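We emphasize that the prediction below concerns an isolated chain of 111 residues; any contacts that depend on oligomerization or on bound cofactors are therefore not represented. The input was used exactly as deposited, without trimming of termini.
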Amino acid sequence: MAGPIVRYQEIAAQLKKRVFNWSAFEDGALLFIIGFNKKVLIANNLGTVADLSFNFSSEGFMDAWIGLFAYCFQIYFDFSGYSDMAVGLGRMFGFGFPLNFNLTFPPWLEG
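Result of the prediction step, given as a token string:
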């Protein structure tokens, strides 16, 4: 799992008894879709920009900065997207993993 790092003690009870409901499944599916879009639409495109910027034969000042920022945001959205997908899949199967990157979620997904 590429998502949130959790200790066994945090989820031990859930491994013994999971609670499934459709509302959590829907929230998890939506969270998975949000994470997938972060990964595919944002992180992958920023990776292309970073690669192009760093592969120029004559790098200029602006090329280096564009590449740097594109790479930093690529890493952020890549990890954030994978974390969202992992938490979403967990919710779909009845697990309650803690959220990462809490500021990116709509309030109704917290919990």
